[in-house]
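haha ok so turns out i had the wrong file open the whole time. this is the CORRECT one, sorry everyone. sequence first:
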Amino acid sequence: MNYVYLVTLLMLAEYVLIGYGVSRARTRYRIKAPAVTGDPQFERWFRAQQNTVEQLIVVIPALWIAGLTLDPLWAAAVGAVFVVGRGFYVYGYVQSGGGRHYGFMVGYTAALALLSGALWGVLKSLV
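then structure:
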């Protein structure tokens, strides 16, 4: 499970870095809290962060369940794909908004794989 732990920490570190990007954009474009609209560049950072937390709610439990009930190395590898896909997603979103598609699809596919693997692992454990 050590690889699952490592990938979980990478996911959380990536989220913290995205949050830092939101903070910098808030300062750069003078968006005073609690406002979440204003400059489009800030809004892209903010939406990328919000979408990431929405994905992590599914991905982290699925990663752990798949790691515990199926195969920790497989779960960690798919989780690492999610981290890379999420990085491309954020980069593409911040650059143009429309450039997020491929990164999103990589991360989304990894999330579905983890969810499916977790379900399979649980069902296998029940039988």
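The two ends are 23 Å apart (CA to CA).
again sry for the mixup
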